[in-house]
Amino acid sequence: MTAKLGLLAFISLATVAFARVDEVKIPAQMKACEAVEDCVQVEILCSHCCHSGAINKKAKTDFQKLYQKSCRDYKGGACNCINLKHHSVCRKGLCEVEYDKVP
Known about the structure:
Elements: H1 2-17, E1 39-43, E2 52-56, H2 60-71, E3 86-91, E4 94-99
Antiparallel strand pairs: 1-2, 3-4
């Protein structure tokens, strides 16, 4: 019983530790905006699992370089998923993704 609990604890910790290893973190300076027109959506998961982020369009080239560098050694799977409708917004000076409400 103790061995099973120990193994379960290890699996739980490993799952938490590695839950989003494929996510590219967007630096705050790449998210700065004054208006929604400043923002564009970008893929932020190396696995392409339908998870977008938003950045200032002037930072797109720099983000693409960061994405390529961050995902260069990614060995995980890829997703075939349903992409929920969403759009970019400029909220409190930062580009963000906002998902449309499902009726």
